[in-house]
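re the bet — no i am not wrong, look at it urself. input seq straight from the record:
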Amino acid sequence: MLDILLILPPIVGAERSQVPPLGLGYLAGMVKDRYSVKIIDMAATKMKKNELIQILEENRPKIVGISSLVNVHKSGCKVARIVKEVLGGEAMVAMGGPHVTFLAEETLTQVKEIDVIVLGEGEYTFLELVRHRFAGNPEKLEDIAGIVFRKGNDLIFTKKRSMIKELDQVPFPARELMDISLYQESGTIITGRGCPFVCKFCASSSLCGRKFRARSAKNVLAEIDELYNKFQIKRVYFADDTFVYNQKRTQEICSGLIERNYGLIWGCGTRVDCVPQNSLELMYRAGCKGILLGIESGDEKVLKNIGKGISLELILDAARRIHDIGMQLTCSFILGLPEDTEESLHRTFDLIHQLRELKQSPTEADITIYFSILTPLPGTEFYDRAEDFGIEILTKDWDRYTFMEPVINTEHFTQDDLRELFFAANAPVREMVGDQ
């Protein structure tokens, strides 16, 4: 018999998971000392329905927790139905994650098999939910902050749970419960939560707050020690929205890596206005071999209107310094932003041409350009106020929200236009920008 089963459902639009399900790992880390826990990643293992049924029948868990991201939401609802078909009321089915946080009422209304939705940061909420499930004299669900549940024909939203102030107190993800050999980026780490910026296409600040809450350098280095010594991981990716936001902490982490001399290779993402030269040089010495810059557009009017708050001058300066120091540079762009026109896209492709020209010889570090199509996610301003931005959302079939398939029309581009733009943007650079 098993106390808790945590499931990442199959991922639509991806052959398998690229990173371990750290969200589930954090939940398991909170409860594993007192309860038996199993994590299954149906995407990474390519698990079929009959295999899931067999696991449910053999383990008969009392709680089943299911992740809900946009591209696993529909399959997650199917998993919930399977759990109830096999176990009935024997198991409490809880769902959590960014997508369901913003669509809790819709989800519970449509999917009767889900008992509870965990809103926002789930670690302490889930711990209380587990204690409730296994308590001899169970407290009322109403007393657990940060959940939504069904009571008769009503949906009960409990009081809002405060954000976790001391992230160092949250145990590391229970990676020992995962087969980390299945993942391309098995050394992925999350070192902070929340974002002080206001990009209208991103739900990070809505989900985790406008304040960047950082784990201490000591705590981050302790997790790196565990990755290296316990799991023999020698490549790390810091998956924070802006790893370099807190300069002092970044430098402390880098100094710790240099002192350990593990020979780790690592990368991170950041904004173009968070790349000071002294931190950049220290990061390179500490093993940072690649940085992802979220640029989104080469048109300053578009950048302003999406809340990005950066300039072309800052973009080119940061990109040049990253490239010159010898790091691989990846730049992400979004096609189909509300203010995008043919003229603004020409400016975007002009910028891309300038970025590519930073590499002058085959021996220099690579420069990669990555495109996605604007996909208004629940919790973002572009979703909540789509009409105000001239965005027509054509479908809420979440399986189609892959960032590679257009699900919108804008004032200037149709769904078909965006599809053609995406294919053209991923063609050789000469086809994007012409003879320049």
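see?? Residues 121 and 222 are 22 Å apart (CA to CA). told u. also The chain is about 35% helix and 15% strand. so pay up
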